[in-house]
Amino acid sequence: MPQSDLFGLEMLWKLESANLADKADAMMLFVHWFLVRNGFRNVGVGDDKTLNNAVDQSELLPEGWNGNNKSYALRYIMNNELYILHGTLSNDTMIVNLLQAQSLQVSNAAFNLDKTITSFNDSNLTNMVVSIDDQITRLQTELIKPLCDGGSKSSSTQTLISSSPSPAQVNVVPAGGGPRRIQVLRPSGLLLPFGGGGGVGRGDLNPLGGVVGGGGGGGMLMDPMNMGPGRVDPFLPGARIDPMGPFPPRVQRPNPNPDHLPPPGYDDMFM
Questions:
Q1: Rounded CA gap, 189 and 187, in Å?
Q2: Residue 193 has what pLDDT?
Q3: pLDDT digits (tens, 9 = 90+) for 76-98
Q4: Fold of 9-48+55-149
Q5: Model confidence over 108-141: pLDDT tens digits?
Q6: I need a surface site. Which of 115, 138, 175, 192 has the fewest CB within 10 A?
Q7: Vertex 22, ends 48 and 47: CA angle to 5°?
């Protein structure tokens, strides 16, 4: 016994049974009944995609709907949307397409007539459709659901939040217009010279790393202050530099003081 609600199918069959010529007509009548049961109303034959609200809406099949039993075209309306039902017979297979006229979305289902419709002479269509519950399920999932339920699914957009530093802003003035703002990323591992923290390459940016800047090796192979391990005197012998502190008290050096002016004629080789 079929478990689906088949209300209206028997009445439709009795109204149209005299007009049915073959299994293809019976198959299209079954599809029409299913659409009507799901809220669709017929508004005529053809594949015109313009909707006239003044046309009568009906649960019945329109006159001349099976004038060509190799190709069918029926127009339906639901929720003020126009749908066009196409049925094409090809090698004993009925290919059914449902087109939404506004969005041009199409759904389709294919039925082998010999395996779907039994003896055509039965007085009850419910006995002619093989496994009628399965055929109803196919029409629901393959023909109606892709159009009527597909649009209700909203695709969610996932936003990824990165831990990148906030970009710096640079104003650039193009040749033919006003200033344009460009975002420049500042790498998180690069620090300004003599800055705090332990960024990569910090020692190379501070030539006086052992003296100024809070520890770490300097970036110069030859430290101008010669502050290697175990050396107290911050000055090179005879170096003519006056470093600025804080440094240990200056060591008294023997005369002549290199900072004093040389005597007259110091560089005259004939004196």
A1: 6
A2: 47
A3: 999 999 999 999 999 899 999 99
A4: Protein Transport Mog1p; Chain A (3.40.1000)
A5: 999 999 999 987 777 777 788 999 999 999 999 9
A6: 175
A7: 5
Beta bridge partners of 96: 87, 109
Helices (H), the chain: 9-16, 23-37, 113-116, 125-128, 132-138, 145-148, 202-205
CB 180, CB 173: distance < 8 Å: yes
Q: In the structure encoding, which two tokens stand for residue 39, read together?
A: 């809220």
Element (H, E) at 197: none
Among candidate residues 28, 109, 43, the one with its CA nearest the CA of residue 78? 43
Q: How many CB atoms lie within 10 A of CB 163?
A: 5
Q: How far apart are CA 136 and CA 69, in angstroms?
A: 22
Distance of alpha carbon 2 from alpha carbon 31, whole angstroms? 17
Q: Where are the domains of the chain?
A: 9-48+55-149
**Rounded CA separation 214/196 (Å):** 8
Residues of the chain with pLDDT > 90, as a percent, come to 41
The Cα–Cα gap between 169 and 161 comes to 20
Per the CB < 8 A criterion, the answer to whether 205 and 195 are in contact is no
| CA 190 to chain CA mean position, Å | 33
Encoded tokens for 216 = 């770490």
Which residue type is seen at 168?
A
Among all chains, which residue has been given the structure tokens 């039925």? Answer: 111
DSSP state of 173: -
**Looking at per-residue confidence, does 5 or 15 come out higher?**
15
> Nearest 5°: CA angle at 216, between 163 and 184?
30
Specify the amino acid at residue 122: D
Strand partners, 178: none
For residue 249, the model assigns a pLDDT of 55
- Can you give the pLDDT at residue 194? 47
